[in-house]
Design brief:
Chains A, B, C, D, E, F, G, H, I, J: It comes from Rhodovarius crocodyli. Chains A, B, C, D, E, F, G, H, I, J: It catalyses: cyanate + hydrogencarbonate + 3 H(+) = NH4(+) + 2 CO2. Chains A, B, C, D, E, F, G, H, I, J: This is Cyanate hydratase. Chains A, B, C, D, E, F, G, H, I, J: Keywords: Lyase. Chains A, B, C, D, E, F, G, H, I, J: Catalyzes the reaction of cyanate with bicarbonate to produce ammonia and carbon dioxide. Ten copies of one chain form a homodecamer. Chain A has about 160 residues and is of the alpha+beta class. The first copy, chain A, has two domains: about 5-70, 434 Repressor (Amino-terminal Domain) (Orthogonal Bundle), CATH 1.10.260.40; about 85-140, 2-Layer Sandwich (Cyanate Lyase, Chain: A, domain 2). In chain A, about 45% of the residues lie in helices and about 15% in strands. Chain A has a two-stranded antiparallel ribbon. The longest helix of chain A has 25 residues, at about 85-105. Chains A and B meet through helix 3, helix 6, strand 1 and strand 2 of A and helix 3, helix 6, strand 1 and strand 2 of B. Strand 2 (about 130-140) of chain C pairs antiparallel with strand 2 (about 130-140) of chain D.
């Protein structure tokens, strides 16, 4: 059994039952919807209590439940050909240089973590057409300057 | 003169003057910092009054000022090799499928615009390490179902 | 069941029945032929009433009908190796720069939407060989200049 | 001198003079704007009388005028990273399969020419936002079935 | 059923029967061998009377016969790794620039069609080792200069 | 000095003098036009007497003449974006499998040489539009079955 | 049946029987080991008498025996990820320019054939660690200068 | 001035002076050699006091000193063609799956940081040939399970 | 049976039994955990006694046991999309140039072997978050300067 | 100064002087011709005494002589488009799997070194056309099975 086969099985059941993701996330609960849906699509791990709830909901075997608790091989083929996902890719491609310049000026040498980050989106009603509002925050991780002597900042935080 | 040459000239002046992006954006003003920095890095257009201010600040020629008012050929080589930009790319690569599933369930068939979208980031102090907080909102654009007969939704909004 | 398997099943039935796309689109109706054929080939969503008609026509199961109502992961491998599709790709590759220059001069900074666009083609008889006539129109979406102050155009429409 | 250098020179002059493409095309005339702009951007050939007019307008040397009359090495790097051009690329990537199915059913085995084709776009005012209207027609070129015996259609036109 | 599966089935039968391509093309007849073999390998369409003959020869079902009459998605992965096909690819890669220069000088701006072209090869005995002799001719398609005024050549034929 | 710089210099002179390739090949002579143009474009070597003639014609230095006599690093970026060259590439991509099947059946296991091959093209007048007629022949090179024992064909010629 | 499936079957039998390649090549004989193993792995053709011996050894069907006698679609995905094969790839990548310079100086304009070439390797005992000794020889194929006049070398052999 | 130009200048001076990296790192000091060399090669930032020392050593201008203090656009083209760097790439390609399995089992869901990591290498004398000994340690960053309810681990640390 | 299928079977059993890698490596023993896990994931060979132990543990057939003793086709698709493996890839991409400079200065011209290398990792408790500590050592292999005369170093060791 | 610029300078001098590689290698001496030519083309390092001889021969500056003594960033773009180099690439692509099978059976788990290897080629006269004879030998490097217990072979040599 591969993770792709498990995802296909879960989507088959979702389709047959006519369940929405909202319903499924409500039943499993315990974490953000993005993480739960990500796990069911094969990109995230479900911690044990949630994997158990998912297994109960979808009627999965013990091995399938166990697989949901495994960290999958993450990622999808790039560039994304699907327009919805491509638009996010384009935001990075067009705005990446400016984000880099501004974040480094504000925080110093480092990155915004893609691991310790949270993400939320909500519908923002708007008279000219509703908007997708996305909020995310990621921990800033400064480049470590190892071997640093005294008087040299050990981490890449903004220099005075 | 190419846009790349103009960007290099602007960065040379910034370096010689010791200016920060914050200072530069404050002098030019009128739009979000991301857009101004993006324009100076060759990814965005500066509208005429701002191009004039930028030209005055950097001592640019009339032709250079005019080039800042042009829409550049946007985009950068992908995948990004720089870690800071790569982390955003990875967020899309890992979370794209879940975002697609949840946005389509909430909004129907369509995309979140990468054109009519706004973006802001701020520093979020945190005891375990400060965080980069990003807020963005993009207009939801439903797929148009052209040739739609009466009784068929003309646009891809969520079906009842 | 994957969307590819559903497409293959639909094409098998079409072949066995000897149906033309014209006949199939006539039976399902309600939207443009390009969208209906696109959905049956796995690139578009059929809204519920049309998915029901398609299911009745092809004798599909409830789950298969439901899958036709889902937004698929759109896109195909590029560059296209098939000559018919490649010619469209070549038009973009050769004429893209001129289209960009002219559209931006006429409309300002922005794009022609690939989401809110309609498309039609017809046969144009011609003594030297019939022609394929294509008409399409897409909504112009101006780049949003967020954070714009008063006096600065909020959207990228053509500056005076 | 390369064609890229000539294009850069022409754009420098356009910028210094403050000319629009509309003005330039009006001065050169004789062919569609898309072709004239395409030639000045290095993707098309200008026939001799138009190359002469362009040379007079831009003050080009005889060798530069001669280069405008040459067929350039056409094409640009793909996939396009610029959002405006990418949207056209996406239309092909998402709708290509349906276009192929419908054109082949209507015309038989063959292609729509990307060489013998004309193209026009215009602004279509619309209360919800103006639209870009594109019309194009390309000669249908049937696949030649060479070596065809009598009774076998020599060309790929739609079989009865 | 996919076209690949049909090709595999046809090759299985060819192998079991011990038929040569010469024999198969003799039985089906009506078009050049390259086209018939191309169709059986999934790159070309067989017109109806030939598809019927092929179906009789290979004992195919009505649906399989119908599939042979469909235009396949043409093309193969490139660059070709097989040495025989690579040599043709290399001819284009090495000689393409000279062919372009000479054809454009002789014919003007345009292409040699890959659709309306015929192809033949024969064995040419030679004392130092036999040669493969290839003859092909393709219709020259001049670039259309649409929107052309009087006095401007409407097509890209060689200018006087 | 690179070969690319020499090619650019030769094209500059050709343009300034208003020479055609036909004229240039007539002046240099001694080999097929495709080879002479190929050498001037940096894909072929000119043997010494021809390099001398080319140097006299274009007024080249001794080092430049010597460079024309060198074997260049052959090849161009693929896939070709220029439509004229792409059509040849497409012929290989679409017809390669059939060519392989037929050549191997006729000649046995081996290739048609891209090194020991000659090439010629001519204009073929045709009432429906002139055609480009191409003739080429390449030596068939059988795969060597080294280590072959007696009774086993040493070379890959067609088995009886 | 595909060639990949036949290779998998042969490897399954080899594994079950516990045969070495040396044993298999001894049983089939008649050609070099590299060619026999290459054929069983799907990269070479076995001539008829050897295909018959291989079929007897592995207990293959008549169709499978026939497939071993077919010329396969040669080649594997590149660059090779396996370290053993990569080292050969690296030798070409690092030493290719020097090999080209030296072979062309010694032999003139042409190539060393990859078709008419033989290959052998043996174990070379060495006190610091045994070495793999490889010997190969390929026919030098000079570039044909077709259309060559008298006094011009017809082939690309080293000029005096 | 680009960072590449600055790197080239620094290497020119190093070569003219005959300095070793060891000498240079000794003069600049304050951080690990890998970081200092990385900065001089354009992959890292030198903090201000070190940039000042480097500027004094190499006789750089104020603008060049300032550029050394900037965070560069990190990364190099991949896969690396140089054998020394490729071997590290190969270690990841061959051992990546096992490292992932073992690290996730020991630490839970997360990554080893490439930002907060230190690196050292030393020569390890060995009778059969000296060895390169590498030690590195990177902070383990657990995937954040945002939106986690009580009782659900907030971070991806190893579950009991 | 392919190696991928064997890996999938082994992972299925591991999941059903609820075994950890630590437990599995303890049962098989005899080599480092990285090598054992690598072999079970299809990247390494298990020597015969360990393949026998693995077969007993997982209840494998003789052929499956034999396959574990074969050297697999090593490597995985790159760049890695999974974040954990990507971080190692990024370390090479960002630090490769500095590692090359420093290793060559210390050892001379050559590489650190990716074949004769050992690898170990351990958990390093740390108050700010535990760290992954990696130690590896690889034999330095100097480039052989073959054909070296007396007085010229035969190997690429550091010159005095 | 880059290594590419130095190579171009050396080739300019070679061309102006009319020197052959044989002459140059004779003057520099001390190592195999392949290594000397490789170094002058920017792929290898010349040890100090040879760099001195090369500098004297070509009249290089001290900095240029020093650069010849540096280990360059090795490798060239792949796949090679030049036919002479491609044929070597093709040998690896077609024969790689068989070489892997046979070398591993003879030597055990490991590779043939691309670093500690020597290479020689010579002209082999042959009545049907002279041949390029290549001899190379590379040290076999067995995969190290680190952490190996007693009774388990420490290295990957052929198991009994």
């Amino acid at each position: 059994m591969t993770r792709t086969q498990l995802t296909e099985k879960i989507l088959d059941i979702k389709r047959e039952k006519g369940w929405s993701w909202k319903y499924i996330c409500g039943e499993i609960g315990g974490m953000s919807d993005t993480l739960i849906v990500g796990a069911l699509l094969g990109q995230m791990k479900l911690v044990k209590p949630l994997a158990a709830k998912a297994a109960a909901l979808f009627g999965l075997s013990a091995a399938e439940q166990s697989m949901l608790n495994e960290v999958p091989y993450r990622g999808m083929p790039m560039p994304p050909t699907d327009p919805l996902i491509y638009r996010f890719y384009e935001m990075v491609m067009v705005n990446g240089p400016a984000w880099k310049a501004l974040i480094e000026e504000e925080f110093g040498d480092g990155i915004m973590s893609a691991i310790d980050f949270d993400f939320d989106f909500e519908r923002m009603p708007h008279p000219k057409g509703d908007r997708v509002k996305i909020s995310m925050s990621g921990k800033f991780l400064p480049y470590k300057y190892y071997g640093a002597e005294q008087g040299i900042p050990e981490y890449g935080f903004k220099e005075e």
